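Q: Structure tokens for this one, please.
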Amino acid sequence: MVIGVPAGRRANETARLIERWGGAALLGPTVEEVEVTDPAQVLQATREVVDSPAAWSVHLTGVGTRRWFGIAKEHELLEVLLATLGRSRVVARGQKASSALRSFGLAPEWVPEGETSKEIADWMQDKVAEGDVVAVQRHGERVPGLTDRLQQAGARVVELATYHWEIPADRGPANHLVRELAGGRVHALVITSAPQMRNLFEVARDIDLEQDLQDALCNKVFLASVGSVASVSLEERGLTPGLVAHPPRLGALLRSLAAAREQILLKAGSPGAV
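A: Here is the predicted structure, written as tokens:
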């Protein structure tokens, strides 16, 4: 059984887990995490968080939180930043962000069960006060479903991003993955972040296979998503995941995928295949 993996980070770990239960992983990264090279915007936002000071601090990723604090340390702002956040109400989206915060002596007040920014927006919307400054450490793209709702509630949002996402410079593996998917030679596709799917279609568009890819994902390829956030990128294309991991973890996703063998083969049109 061939499983497509468009992840960049943790791709090799994903492949090992797939191969452990007898699958064959086809790696074709569509996302590359690129760190900011000029920290000026991060430093400006950090000073705004400290000077305001921020009433809230929302952390969406562990790696982003650690990099933010690392930049602050390099520019002798870490001590005052941690003191500021220690007096604010801190929210972590998931366990990785929570772990990063705790390693710096900060205890999150709340972590959403589903680990989504929508849950954070729902929880905070009637708690933020008019004029509250809310620091939002975000991942590689804007999160309007969170930031816009906080602003609508009267908060002033300060966004901090220490990296962004791009399609890898070497598109060869991603092109190959698209061709194999479009040609019906992949049984399932594992999606662990929304940008993976969006970039997959951009790659397909550039090699004139966008509609072929859409048709294959609709009719032949079993779609597995790590959680509701990743699933949004499928729904944007009118696609329905065959499974959504619960809890939203890579291990849970791949265990569920292994258990869905018959469903995978049925959608591929080869229920008796090995």
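A few notes: The mean pLDDT is 94. The two ends are 7 Å apart (CA to CA).
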